[in-house]
User: Fold this.
Amino acid sequence: EIVLTQSPATLSLSPGERATLSCRASQSVDSDLAWYQQRPGQAPRLLIYGASNRATGIPARFSGRGSGTDFRLTINTLEPEDFAVYYCQQRHSWPLTFGGGTKVEIK
Amino acid sequence: QLQLQESGPGLVKPSETLSLTCTVSGGSISGSSFYWGWIRQPPGKGLEWIGNIYSDERTFYNPSFKSRVSISVDTAKNQFSLNLRSVTAADTALYYCARVPENWFDPWGQGTLVTVSS
Assistant:
């Protein structure tokens, strides 16, 4: 099973700042990685798939990059609605697995 | 707009079977080329994939559930269902259903909380 490790566990930032989240895979997943956002009390929603492709309706301030084992999600100019938990997920091999999440909180 | 809605008992006794249904609206399960899946989230914790099903009933399961899990589809009702047998308190979680395009999850249902307790 591929283990995804997300860091940091919590990121404390102010609105308008840039957030950089990391996801590291225990073995290469090529570009088979997605990012999800989960706001409090809501279901997760797909932000990025294929490491760098924004899902439908996702604002351009969200961007993803990486391949192999190291991935980044960047949120430029944090908006109030961006304070949430973010998860990465790999589809490279079975079973499909998620990272433990990074909470982006208001500083 | 595609929407998914989970339904089922919110309380299940230990050793019994957890059964949930996901109703899809705004699109057809049988006419799609997607998988449909279940994911769970224990309270305050992260996400765990349970399994996926295709409209022709092909399934993929997370081995961590061993032989306890089964997912079925009812194309006539535009629903798919989850059965998890021999539950324990560790199975207490928010259970989500989702459409699974190319093994990503999008969109998700709102989730339903299932508590395992006597």
